[in-house]
Write a structure and sequence with these properties.
Blueprint (H helix, E strand, L loop, with lengths): L59 E7 L3 H12 L4 E4 L15 E2 L7 H33 L7 E8 L6 H14 L3 E4 L11 E9 L2 H14 L3 E3 L4 E5 L4 E5 L4 E9 L15 E12 L9 E4 L6 E5 L3 E10 L7 H14 L6 E12 L5 E4 L7 E5 L5 H16 L7 H4 L8 H17 L1 H4 L13 E7 L2 E7 L5 E5 L10 E3 L4 E3 L6 E2 L5 E3 L18 H4 L12
Parallel strand pairs: 1-2, 1-10, 2-7, 4-12, 10-17
Antiparallel strand pairs: 3-6, 4-6, 5-6, 8-9, 9-10, 11-14, 11-15, 12-13, 13-14, 16-17, 18-19, 19-20, 21-22, 22-23, 23-24
Length: 556
Amino acid sequence: MSGHRQRPRQQLPRSPLGSSRGWHGSRFRHGMYNAHQTSGESEPSWEKSSVSASDPLPSTADVCVIGAGMAGLSTAYNLLRAGRSVAVLDRGDLGAGETARTTAHLASAVDDKFYLLERMHGRLGAKLVYESHAAAIDQIEHIAAEENIDCDFARIDGFLFPAHPRQARDIEREFEAATRAGLHVTQLSGAPLPFDSGPCLRFARQAQIEPMKYLHGLARAVRKMGGLICTNAHVQTIEEGRPCSVRLADGVTVRANAVVVATNTPINDVFAMHTKQAPYRSYVIAVEIAPGSIEPGLYWDSGDPYHYLRLQGNDLLIVGGEDHKAGQAQKPEESWQRLQAWTEDRFPFTRHVRHRWSGHIQEPADGLAFIGLNPGHDKHVFIATGDSGNGMTHGAIAGMLLTDLICERSNPWASLYDPRRKVSSLHAMRDFLKENLNVAMRYGDWLLPKAASEHGILPGSGAVIRRGVRPIAVYVDEGGKRHECSAICPHLGGIVAWNRAERSWDCPCHGSRFSPYGEVMTGPAARDLAPLGDSPQEKPRAVEEGFAEPSSIEAE
């Protein structure tokens, strides 16, 4: 889940954090992270990513899947069951991307509310959204049982409650729309929480899992069926064809009849998909509680930004939310502080914060993921992106839907999730225009440069400086050594910003992320930040020629 529905308000913490349960950033810092094993410094509470040996890289396969997260491995699993040979390629280790950073709410009561989905996609579309996510939960449950994956899968209820009394009407509208869509939903006077939540909705047959245990089990099942998982395989270009060509950074090429790009956001598109969705960071804390003090369930409030909760085991309360646009928060660590303040206000018996982390999500303009053929003229390149905070179920949906498309079978969800679909509502068009205007404004960093001083960058931190007109990303490691590279994102030339919460370079335009040393961790960029000798000194094409080419999302 993610806490984003609309652009979040920036808030200050509402209460000071006491020293006994206070905020000590250093207690969570354990030295520099390995960008091939994770996508940031913070550590989720889940089982750590696997460093299992890579399978040998094949020269050919029926299908090449790029990305070894939930969407990629779910697709590989289903394709292998359908009789296709599959090679999965990932730039890092298994689970090094965003799957490890989810809170793993398996919800058919989706992130974007049903009364809004009805406006944008009609009642039939909203019904198909519910049915596809319910089917995704069913398949995860079935695979876990069939493959003997011990991933703590549990069916539990979900509860939606108002953040403020004035939002009670929104809860009523959601009840009516969810009922029309087919969900098993009931109205209650309050959620089973230790504070007065106000009237709420209970959604039956939701679920939760431990995501990394499930991912490791899914990887074992893929390999058992003959699938290959090739880690530390850095894909840089994908060419449509019959066969398609997937070229790696080391010059090796893999050819396949079909390619699936399941990399959180596509690394094969320059403009089209990145004008249709916006990158956000969502924040999470795992707080110690007394066993039995909170009833198991998935909990969501209706605030903006909203909060989402679940238990891990019986002694950890996982609380998420406080989203912001990627690369656009000057003090991102304050999101964790606000989460802790919110939690202490409502759960005063909570103890220490044991873990904290953040994750990368893609918010589509019309609330639905993009799963299907890549926009343009591609006939054999498929994508899965736009998770909108429901990455686990969208990943499972991708596995089922993309397998049907590649095997040329019909699927009732195909047009709903089609990446080439058009916007047909004013609500979606408003978000589309707002997000793209926000991106265009970020290119103003070229025209109105703001830069830190060459001196005064503390060990363990970074800053963008200027030498003439050239923006330079400078990281000073814990030993005081400076590491410099271009601050120009290789995707479309945005100027990266230092994320001091995760110790990474984040592009404020389309969300590409890089390690402190410039290694690419998250697309749409497919290449590292350039060494200074190779960095471009001219303004990027997006500045010289205008922000973007027309998107294939259009108003009807």
